[in-house]
């Protein structure tokens, strides 16, 4: 796969993705860190604008983060420092199926909400190559949020409009990557949740960052978030109020044999 023929669902909404996606909980990175020493090198393919990179960079001394979308990498919070050669994060524009890291040089490959877009056979071959013996592949995903109380009808109407624009890969996320042909034996992983307390604007921004929202807009010429904005706003309550949101977060840990 060349850099120009990957399934690019996020370059057009890179700005929305950078500012609207939820942050990952500390418990996620602690679960990975329990198996990988802090001095290990991390490779994070499909890094996007860096939602997961923050937690990785806080726990490991060297993080190589890559994404096939130049627009996403340009919006990564570590982009300027990486260009100057500062900090512990190095960024590159590259697909998940290819990297220039040395054989056996990586302690953990961390894939946040991106594995479903990769050509897995080729990606898993890269993992087998770059992971050191005993190294860990950590891949996680989160599906639909739990609907806040009183918003059921408004959210259901919005979801009905975009439901036909989800792709096969999105359904794999909802299934928590069940049935994947993983390359290594599993390591026990905890049950996790992704949580956020947002205002209405951040919530609507999140809905705009969904790839199905963008595909629906491109296909119909109508912005589904704008079309449902009034109903979602009424259901939200006072526009300056905040709501608690939760997503089920599924973590897969796989260890390369020693």
TrEMBL record:
Organism from which the protein derives: Lysobacter enzymogenes
Biological process annotations from GO: methylation
Name assigned to this protein: Class I SAM-dependent methyltransferase
Pfam family name, one: Methyltransf_11
Entry's family note: Belongs to the methyltransferase superfamily.
InterPro entries in alphabetical order: Diverse_substrate_MTase, Methyltransf_11, SAM-dependent_MTases_sf
GO molecular function, one term: S-adenosylmethionine-dependent methyltransferase activity
Transmembrane keyword on record: no
Source superkingdom: Bacteria
Record key words, sorted: Methyltransferase, Transferase
Domain Methyltransferase type: 44-138
Phylogenetic placement of the source organism: Bacteria, Pseudomonadati, Pseudomonadota, Gammaproteobacteria, Lysobacterales
């Amino acid at each position: 796969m060349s850099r120009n023929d990957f399934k690019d669902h996020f370059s057009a909404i890179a700005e929305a993705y950078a500012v609207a996606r939820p942050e990952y909980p500390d418990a996620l990175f602690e679960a990975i860190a329990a198996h990988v020493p802090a001095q290990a090198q991390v490779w994070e393919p499909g890094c996007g604008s860096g939602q997961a990179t923050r937690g990785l960079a806080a726990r490991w001394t060297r993080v190589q983060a890559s994404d096939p979308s130049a627009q996403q990498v340009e919006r990564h919070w570590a982009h300027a420092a990486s260009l100057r050669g500062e900090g512990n994060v190095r960024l590159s524009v590259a697909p998940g199926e290819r990297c220039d890291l040395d054989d056996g040089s990586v302690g953990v490959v961390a894939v946040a909400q991106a594995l479903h877009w990769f050509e897995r056979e080729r990606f898993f071959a890269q993992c087998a190559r770059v992971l050191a013996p005993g190294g860990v592949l950590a891949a996680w995903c989160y599906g639909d949020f739990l609907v806040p109380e009183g918003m059921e009808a408004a959210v259901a109407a919005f979801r009905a409009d975009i439901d036909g624009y989800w792709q096969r890969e999105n359904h794999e996320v909802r299934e928590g990557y069940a049935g994947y042909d993983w390359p290594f034996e599993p390591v026990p992983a905890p049950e996790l949740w992704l949580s956020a307390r947002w205002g209405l604007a951040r919530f609507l921004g999140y809905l705009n960052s969904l790839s199905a929202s963008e595909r629906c807009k491109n296909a119909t010429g109508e912005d589904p978030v704008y079309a449902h904005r009034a109903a979602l706003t009424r259901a939200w309550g006072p526009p300056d109020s905040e709501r608690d949101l939760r997503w089920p977060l599924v973590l897969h840990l796989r260890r390369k044999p020693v």
